[in-house]
Amino acid sequence: MESLRKKWSRSRYYSGIFRANAARLDALQNALADERSREVLQTILRAYKAVSRPAGYYFTQAAGVPCTEHHFVTPDGYQVRGTRNPYFLPELFRLTPEMVYLDGGAYIGDTLQLLTETLGAPCRFAYAFEPNAENYKKLLATAARCQPDIQCFRCGLDDRDGTASFSVNDAASRIDSQGNVTIPVMNAGKFLESLTEHRPTFIKLDIEGREPAVLESMAPYLRRYTPDLAVSIYHKLEDLWEIPLQLQRICPEYRLYIRHQSNYFTETVCYATKNGV
User: Does the N-terminal or the C-terminal CB of the chain have fewer CB atoms within 10 Å?
Assistant: First the structure.
């Protein structure tokens, strides 16, 4: 059982961070496109500062829908669960089988399969990036079942071409200077600019902290083609406000939304769309 003193200490710590970034949080509040996003943001902030209730109480409130999908168990035995559909929200996006999908952090193809189930058919074309060797094998098997028109890449998305140190940890595998293996990485912006057909109309990024760098490399493409976006904003605390404000700067035409998709600190997503519903 976490002591009250520890809870107060944690609350003061996060309260100090939020006060130091009050101007950025206010800017984000004003940039969000709907009241639900603003409520989710405030509930997440309350979760980090929670004392009288467990943080999971507020994260479950922020999710607003049942968190039924098992993710993992924390060291203290807390069951972390997420929502069934964290990315393809029909209340925000116009989702059709004609869409072209890019999956950054494709893992074992679970999100690719979710898209097929959501659409009731494969999308027109897909790109999937996954650097973990074991996950990549499973991704290929999933793609063979549900998405015939696809290019899969065993590499990470980054803001440069080359190699990077990589820590292998199943779904939490990530580019890490202390990593135990070396992987190829691809400049996301250069890749997008090289395409002459099948240009992505929906991009999902869950790449364990590389989201800001990759979005910056994609900036010219985002401005020109304004694809729909679903971007994880929980890998670093400051991602919660910095990534949405980055997207606002890159493309002011985007409408920005935030939803939380689990009963824990993980799975907060920023959605951006110009032509949504």
Answer: N
Whether 33 maps to a domain, the answer reads no
Instruction: Tell me whether residue 118 is in a domain.
Output: yes
For residue 191 the two structure tokens come to 């890749």
Task: Give the integer Cα–Cα distance in Å for 91 and 94.
Answer: 8
Domain assignment of residue 51, yes or no: no
- Tell me whether residue 49 is exposed, middle or buried, using C-beta atoms within 10 angstroms of its C-beta: 0 to 12, 13 to 18, 19 or more: middle
- Tokens matching residue 172: 């939490």
Tokens found for residue 238: 């400051």
Which among 66, 60, 120, 62 is positioned nearest to 90, based on CA atoms?
120
> Residues near 233 by Cβ (< 8 Å), separated by ≥ 6?
211, 239, 240, 243, 244, 258, 268, 269, 270
Angle between helices 110-119 and 133-146 (to 10 degrees): 20
**Could you tell me if residue 108 is inside a domain?**
yes
27, 108, 137, 173 from 165: Cα distances, Å: 35, 21, 20, 11
The predicted-structure confidence for 156-185, as pLDDT tens digits, reads as follows 999 999 998 765 554 454 555 566 678 899
Could you give the number of structural domains in the chain? Answer: 1
Q: What angle do CA 154, 235, 167 make, to 5 degrees?
A: 45
Considering the entire predicted model, what is its pTM? 0.93
Buried b / exposed e over 77-97, threshold 16 CB at 10 Å, is: eeebbbbebbbbbeebbebee
Indicate which CATH number applies to the domain containing 160: 3.40.50.150
pLDDT tens figures, 112-126: 999 999 999 999 999
Mean pLDDT of 43-67: 96
Q: In the predicted model, what is the mean pLDDT of the chain?
A: 93
